[in-house]
Structures are given as structure tokens and as C-alpha cells.
Automatic annotation (TrEMBL), chain A:
UniProt keyword terms in alphabetical order: Membrane, Transmembrane, Transmembrane helix
UniProt key word Membrane: yes
Residue stretches in coiled coil: none
Signal peptide region: none
InterPro entries (alphabetical): ABC-2_transporter-like (IPR010390)
Residue spans crossing the bilayer: 59-81, 96-114, 155-173, 179-206, 235-256, 268-288
Keyword Transcription: no
UniProt name for this protein: Transporter
């Protein structure tokens, strides 16, 4: 881990590391916050990419594996459709639209800050303390930790299926629908990203609970790849109004497909995804701040 | 040196059994330590169980009897497979990363010095882990599923017994396969890529995404004889009574036992090839 500090120092990002008393841990001040954070993030990411490229065969296999994992998910759906013509009233290309968009969104969020779930392990082994004394905002370090370029595999695979779905569907294209497709993927990624930050914050209280976060991100995506019509109404309400995963792709995709929302939300709700993403970032970042502030080192 | 140590400790078979039992108990306790991680895992398995259950309901509503299951059998398949998933290390986890790391760092030399067989040592540790995860991660999701849906769990204690035997054999098949992955570190050094590919294969071919009986045609017949079928599909079919006659149940267990022998055997060959190759810097 010394190399992260080396990179930061070599680039002149900050002066010598200040030694702090471990009894008095505090968050590095957020002065110049966003720009400095992004810069630190970029440096750490660049380091991890260089490190990944040392084992090229492993990288190639991992990227392929990453794409293959999600493709096999779809293979299972494909096998389902070899037995039925429609699932919950949706055809295979329609399900592919849901599947591709959600997979691309999750892939993008996972690429940018997918390793935030490792924070629980870092709290447990005490290596979070090392991060706290570095002159880079903690969230940037946690997000860039072990940056995994192989996650491009999932993004490529998701976008590929999304493209196939849009090509094979006969959509009544309007300007709004054309705009909605990229907005859906990006806003979806932002919603997943907020969930990941909130999940990381939760681990300050719960300890090593990475799997809870996974059930909202990977579990959420497993749910969103199927039509909303097959799920119970209570579940739909929960993922629309409590953890608003329905805005990742269900509502925008239903609008593109010209289908009504099973909960009866109006059509314009499909365009709310970016606002929803902003709205979930507020509690997520508050939770993160509270988590960092409440952090007490394991002490060993 | 190693031979002599082994002889003195391994005088009686009883003591050796005691040794492996202690290793297994250690594996059990090690995983039992992380309460929150276990609770988080239970939560995840339950969430996934609900999601998959709804998709199966939609599928079996349209095609009752698909794959030879009725709807409640299909739902049982979902929830029991969520319960077995952590124990069988079907989506990763388990020990192979640790074994690879020990090969990479050279710690494996210490393991080879121990008066115990390398394969049996890891098998005992992994079965200890699996036993904990069977209880810690298996019971609650299954109970949640049984409360929320109508499952086809049998009343017959004999069938549960057969199921447990079949689960045990499945766990050993899973171990034997992951042991091969672990040993590959002698040649590959970085196992991350191969582990990920192995996880992909295991997710798909174990029947976790979709029962293997639903896979169509010749492809379906092919996937049902692969070792991954022995990890999840066969135990579930035993529980669901697809192998209800004594003859067919014996056939299913024999299928699993066959893969146990083949894979453990390959593991031994690979182990002796790997340990002959290993050169550890002294110091």
C-alpha cells in the first residue's frame, strides 16, 4: 500500500504526511474537496491499472469472466424463453432491454466505486487508519481501492445487449424516448453508486457486512432484469418509494416500450431518474459522513 | 524429515482421525466468529430467494410441470438452493484463494512440513466451514421461504437422511474441484482470473440460475452429467423425490461418489506434481 502514498507524493499532491495521534482520528478537512478528491482518485486509479497490467493473462481472463458471468445470467433467461413466448407479458427483446440497461448501469457504478464494499474488511484489519492519515479524501480512496478495470466486461456486455434489444424492438421513437435511453443508463449508475456509498457507510456500524450491500446492488439488478409485472405489489412499492431502484430502469424502460407502470405512476415519472439519483445521494452522503465521524479504530 | 514426523504422529489411525476432526472444528469456529458477516449473508440469500421465487412463479404459471417439477417443487428448489449456496461455495468463497496465496508467498512449505496430508487437511478445514454455513446460512433463508411460499418439503425422514448424505457428497465434490483450482497456483501464481471463470461455470452448471432439468435437449443431458450437477441439482432432486425409488436414489448417490473419487484422484496427482515442482527459498 506504500505505493499509493508514493504516487501521491511523487505528483506533489501534498507535502509530507502529517503524523497524527491515533487517539485523535479525524476526517481530513474537505477544503478544495471535490477537485482534490477527483485528482487523488485519478492517481490511485492509474496506479491500480498499472498494477493490473502486470498480470496480463489474469486480466484478460478476469475481463472475459466478468462479461461471461452476466452473459450466463442472460443465457438462463434465454433458456426460460425457449419454454415460453413471454414472461409476465414481456417478450425476450423487451426483457433484454431491461437486462442490458441495468447491467450497464451496475457495471458503470461498480467500475467507478465498486470496491467500497471492502471497507468492512479494512475496518476489521485496521488498514482504514492508514487511509485516514493520507492527504486524499477518504471516499476517493475507498472508491478507488483496488480499482478493477475488468469490470469493463460487464459494461460492454450490458451495452451490447441493450443495443441488440433496441435494434430488434419496434419502438415508436420520439425525441423524449431517444433522450431517455442514455439518461436511464447514467442515472441508473448514479442510483447504484448512491446505494454503494450508503452500504459502505452502513459497514461503519455493522462491521463486515458487504453482503447487505450486494443484495441491493446485485440483487437489485437481478430483480430489475425481469419485468415488474411478475413481482408482488408490496415489493414494487418498496423498490419504488423506499429504495428507489425502480427508477434505475423499470420506469424509463416501460416508457420507452409504451407500457403502463403496474403501480399506476404517470408517464413523466420515467424522466425523474436523475432527480431520484440526486435525492438518494443526499441521505447516502449524510450517512457516509456520520459513519466516518463515528469511526473508532480497532486499535491494534 | 517429513516422513519421520508423519510416522511418529500417524501411528494410529485413531489419532489421525482426531487430528482432522480438530482441523474441521477449527474451520467451523473460524467462520462462526463473524456474526455480522453471517447475518449479512443470510439477508442476501433471503433477498435473492424472493426475487428468484417470483420469476419461477411466472415461469411455472405458464408452463406447469416444466423440468418435471410442479410450482411448489420449483419454489422448494429456489429456497433450498439458496440455503446450500454458501456451504457449497458455489459463488466463490471457501479456501482456494487462501491456498493460492500460501503457494504464492511460500507458506505452503510450512503446510508440507506438517504431519498431515495436504489434501485431507484442507478437506477437513473446508468441511468444517461448510458445516457451519449449512447451519448458519442455510436454516434461516429456508425458514423464510417456507413461511412466505408453499414449499414441497417432504415429511419422510428417510428422504431427509438421503438428502443429507447427498449434500455431504456434493460438498466433497465442490471441495475436490476447488482444490484443483488452488493447486493451479503452483503454475499460474495469480489465481484471480481462473477463480472468476470457475465461479461463472459453477453458477451456471450447478443449476443455481435455473434447474438443470429445464435445460433443453442434448445440452441439458450433457450438463446433467458434469461434476457441478453433483453439487446442487442431485441433492435437490433427492430431496424433491425425483429419485424416490431405492434404485434411483442409489444411482444418484453413486453418480456423486464417482465424481468424488475422480476429482480427489486428480487432486492427488496434481498435488504430487506441484509439490515436486516447488522450490522455496530458505531463510
Amino acid at each position: 500500500m506504500a505505493d499509493v502514498a508514493d504516487v501521491a507524493e511523487a505528483a506533489g499532491a501534498a507535502g509530507p504526511l502529517r503524523q497524527r495521534e491515533f487517539t485523535d482520528l479525524e476526517v481530513p478537512p474537505a477544503r478544495g474537496g471535490v477537485r482534490e478528491g477527483l485528482r487523488g482518485y485519478g492517481l490511485i486509479v492509474a496506479m491500480w491499472i498499472r498494477s493490473t497490467m502486470t498480470y496480463r493473462t489474469s486480466f484478460a481472463l478476469e475481463t472475459l469472466g466478468n462479461a461471461a458471468i452476466t452473459l450466463l445470467d442472460f443465457a438462463a433467461i434465454y433458456i426460460m424463453f425457449s419454454h415460453v413466448d413471454a414472461l409476465g407479458g414481456f417478450t425476450l427483446p423487451e426483457v433484454a432491454l431491461l437486462y442490458g440497461s441495468c447491467s450497464a448501469s451496475l457495471g458503470l457504478a461498480g467500475l467507478l466505486l465498486g470496491n467500497t464494499d471492502r471497507i468492512g474488511a479494512r475496518i476489521r484489519d485496521g488498514s482504514l487508519d492508514t487511509m485516514l492519515v493520507r492527504p486524499v479524501p477518504l471516499l476517493a480512496q475507498v472508491a478507488a481501492d483496488r480499482f478493477a478495470l475488468r469490470r469493463m466486461g460487464r459494461i460492454a456486455q450490458g451495452l451490447g445487449l441493450l443495443g441488440w434489444a433496441l435494434w430488434s424492438l419496434e419502438v415508436d421513437w420520439t425525441a423524449g424516448k431517444v433522450l431517455l435511453v442514455p439518461v436511464m443508463v447514467l442515472a441508473g449508475a448514479a442510483i447504484f453508486a448512491a446505494v454503494m456509498v450508503a452500504g459502505a457507510a452502513f459497514q461503519f456500524i455493522a462491521g463486515d457486512a458487504a453482503e447487505v450491500q450486494n443484495s441491493f446492488t446485485y440483487g437489485g439488478c437481478t430483480m430489475l432484469q425481469y419485468p415488474p409485472t411478475i413481482f408482488a405489489t408490496e415489493l414494487l412499492r418498496a423498490v419504488t418509494f423506499i429504495v428507489p431502484l425502480a427508477f434505475v430502469n423499470w420506469l424509463p424502460a416501460l416508457y420507452v416500450l409504451g407500457r403502463p407502470d403496474p403501480l399506476g405512476l404517470p408517464g413523466w415519472a420515467a424522466f425523474l431518474s436523475p432527480l431520484v439519483a440526486l435525492a438518494v445521494f443526499v441521505p447516502a452522503s449524510l450517512a457516509w459522513r456520520a459513519g466516518v465521524r463515528s469511526y473508532r479504530s480497532t486499535g491494534s | 524429515m517429513r516422513q519421520r514426523v508423519r510416522q511418529s504422529v500417524g501411528q494410529s489411525a485413531g489419532r489421525r482421525v482426531g487430528l482432522y476432526a480438530a482441523v474441521a472444528a477449527g474451520g467451523f469456529r473460524r467462520y462462526a466468529t463473524y456474526g455480522t458477516a453471517t447475518a449479512a449473508g443470510v439477508f442476501t440469500n433471503t433477498v435473492f430467494g424472493f426475487i428468484v421465487a417470483f420469476t419461477y412463479i411466472a415461469l411455472w404459471d405458464q408452463r406447469p410441470g416444466l423440468g418435471g417439477y410442479d410450482q411448489s417443487q420449483a419454489l422448494t428448489f429456489v429456497w433450498v438452493s439458496q440455503s446450500l449456496l454458501a456451504a457449497g461455495a458455489l459463488i466463490g468463497g471457501g479456501f482456494q484463494e487462501e491456498l493460492q496465496e500460501r503457494v504464492r508467498t511460500g507458506d505452503i512449505a510450512v503446510d508440507l512440513y506438517r504431519p498431515a496430508d495436504l489434501q485431507m487437511w484442507w478437506l477437513a478445514a473446508d468441511l468444517g466451514r461448510a458445516a457451519f454455513q449449512l447451519l448458519g446460512r442455510g436454516l434461516v433463508p429456508l425458514a423464510a421461504g417456507a413461511l412466505a411460499f408453499r414449499l414441497a418439503l417432504p415429511w419422510d425422514p428417510w428422504r431427509w437422511l438421503l438428502f443429507l448424505v447427498s449434500v455431504g457428497l456434493g460438498l466433497v465434490v465442490s471441495f475436490a474441484l476447488r482444490y484443483l483450482l488452488g493447486l493451479l497456483a503452483f503454475w499460474l501464481l495469480d489465481g484471480a482470473g481462473i477463480n472468476l471463470m470457475a465461479t461463472v461455470v459453477s453458477i451456471f452448471f450447478s443449476g443455481m440460475l435455473l434447474p438443470l432439468t429445464v435445460f433443453p435437449g442434448a445440452f441439458g443431458e450433457f450438463v446433467r452429467v458434469l461434476p457441478w450437477a453433483a453439487m446442487l441439482q442431485v441433492p435437490l432432486d433427492v430431496l424433491l423425490g425425483e429419485h424416490s425409488g431405492a434404485g434411483t436414489a442409489a444411482g444418484a448417490l453413486a453418480f456423486q461418489a464417482g465424481w468424488v473419487l475422480v476429482l480427489l484422484g486428480i487432486g492427488r496427482l496434481l498435488q504430487s506434481a506441484g509439490t515436486r515442482k516447488v522450490v522455496v527459498q530458505g531463510g
